[in-house]
Each structure stands twice: as structure tokens, then as C-alpha cells.
Amino acid sequence: MKKITQLICVLLTVASMNAQQEKGIMGYTNWLNNWTEFKPNKVDYGEANQILAGNISVNTKLLKKNIYVLQGNVYVTNNAVLTIEPGTVIIGDFETKGTLVITKGAQLVADGLETDPIVFTSNRSMKKAGDWGGIVILGDAPINKFGNVGSYNLDLDPTMTTYGGDNVASNSGILRFVRIEFAGKKVKGADTFNALTLAGVGNKTVLENVMVSYAGGDSFGILGGDLNVTKFVSYKSVNDDFKFSQGVQCRFFNSLAVRSSYFSSTKDGSRCMEVRSFEKKSETDFTKKQTLVVASNITMVNDSENINADIQAGLVKEAVYVAENASLEMKRSVISGFNPAVLLDSKTEINDANLKKIKFEEMYFNLCKGNIFTEYNSNNEDLESWYGNSVFFNVYSQSDNKETFIDIFNPKKPDFRLQLGKITASSGNR
């Protein structure tokens, strides 16, 4: 009888933990352990002994025993597969803006291990955001531009950087247990690289456990395609953490964005999540699918120790921005420490059709100065009334981050899961 009672207690405890960890990033253990690094500028990765440069046109494997320096624009072409062993270090060259481009039809198989991740980092002694270019993966999945073709230019070879097509299930390889640090270099007279660009990438591509830290541009730029994304981490990006555009269809799960009031840019367009259907309306084919992001168990947090003071000083902006014609369905996610939590494009009319395309359900809005607003409009009563309806089960709180999350200020192994009991707060608590 005693054993049965003990078993029931264990089952009840597990059920309780499951119920209470269902908002934000989730798991019985902290899945950030082992493979992430929150102080990458303190790590000595050693000196490079191999050079990666020019075009890679045949199947090639990078080995853990070597340290590689990525010099200039390196293209994987001719349907070749670039395979990287777990534990391999690739160092982006500052002087030549090292950038790795996986062209359409080629593959990157960077399949690290939790205990042996693959690392892309900077070769500067004092590492800073934007030291090198980044990783660009180009596929042949659909985009919503006319002709179903786009080009990711900046200062890259335009003949090598086309993407888009009709293959929803295209396979650009594997990115798993990978870190990308200090990427996102500014190109003179042009834009800034994303740390990781996924353009026209299809749903056979494996995208799991990827951490971008200290990106000079966006951490993750996702342009069109059809993707399943899980356990992505963006840490202290200068620009957007996750940017979606060009008709992407994305299932986005169990991922984390951490912003800093004193590191992230305060300019327009610097957010945890930006959901757009296009950059230029004139290039967009509205007969094609527009951007749809279905996001669940996402945690977005400003890690400031004094959010209210930073908001008052104008250092904090919105966490999520949804532009016209785009759809976002967000569930069981946490937004903590922003001003406001969500901003809708001023061109988005507040009507039944648009509210059905922009959903927030079972959310935990915490420590935000306002929850959901329309751009340039300080009156959000209609939106508060709509999303505050009990049918959506959204929770509102004003708890300090230290009390809200398990241990986000641990320098070695931070834990961004909600503390047990936090999400049982009354949904009427505003």
C-alpha cells in the first residue's frame, strides 16, 4: 500500500510539473545545459590550423581535430554536402568578413552533440557583435515573390545566392547542437548580415538546438520556405532575434530570446520577433501564401534587473511586431519585460478577419508596459478586451524576473523556465 501511495505522489508531482511548465520553454530538465555558452567572449577556442576559402564543389568533411578559419565568402556549390563533425570549431575571419553560403541544392550537415556542439565564432581577441558575416542557407522551397525566386545579395555573388522554388519538402541538411557567435557584420553601403539566414528552406531540413549569441544584425532571418524549428536560442542580439518574411510557413516550438536593455538596439525594427509577409509590396505575389508563424512555448525576456527604470529611460521596446498581411498564432508563451508586449502594424485593421489571423492564447504576459497595441495608437481598449477574454486563458502579471523564472541570472547555467506556481496566477490580474 505504501509503494502505491508513493507512486501516486510521484505521478501527481510529475503531472503538476507538466501542467505548470507548459508556458514558455519547457522540459523536466533545463535543455540549455551542456551545449550553450552565455559568456562566449571568455572562451579560448585555440588558433586555426586550416583555411576554408573559395568554393566547395565536392562533398567535404570538416574534422574536430582541426580548427578552421572561414576567409571571405565561401560557397558550397554543385549540390555538394559540407559535413561538420561534432565538436568542430570554425572561426569567422574579421578582416575578410568570413561568410558561409550553402547554395540552392547543396547541403550543410552540421550535426553536433549536446556534449560536443559545433561552434562558429570570431577570430578577434576582443570579440564583438558583427565580427564576421554569418551562415546563409538557400533552398528551393516556395517564397511569395513574383517568379518564386529571390536573391540574398549584400556583397555576395548574385549568381550564387538565388533561392525559392516549388519544393516544400526540400532538404538543405541538418543544423543541430550548433552555436553561432559574434556574426552579423555590416556591409558598407548595404545592410547587415544575419547570423543565420534561412531562405527558401524546406521542411526536410533539420533545425534543432541552435544558439546565436551577440549577433550584429538579426540572429535568425527566415525568408520564405516551409520549416519546423525547435530549441532555437537568441542571446543579446543587436537587431531582431527571430525575423520571418516572404511567405514563410513556420512551426516554431520551445525556443528562447533574451534581450538586454543596454545591448540591443533601441531603433525601430529591433525586437524579439518580427513577422512580415514582405519587405517590398511591389515584389510580392499576393496569390501565394503569406507569412504564417505558428509559435508555441516561446520565452521572450528582457534580462534587465530594473525593467521599469529601463522602460522609463526609453531603452525597452516591444517584444513582438506583426506587420500587415502576416499571420501569427502564438500559444503557451511567455513575454516578460517589454514596452509593450506586442505591437500590430498601423495598417492592420482591427476587425474579425485580422483578429482570427493574429492569435494569442494561454499566454503569460509579465512585467510589460501594456500588452497588445496598434502602432502609433495609445488606445488599446478594444485589443485588451479581445485578448483579455477568458476564452483565451491569457495570464497577466507584474512579477520581478527573479521571481518569475527559475534562475536567469546564473552566469554559467541560466534557467529560463517559469518557476513552479507562477502560471497559476489569476488571469484577471492585470
TrEMBL record:
Residues 1-19 form the signal peptide. Keywords: Signal. The keyword Signal applies. PANTHER family: LIPL48, SECRETED PROTEIN. This is T9SS C-terminal target domain-containing protein.
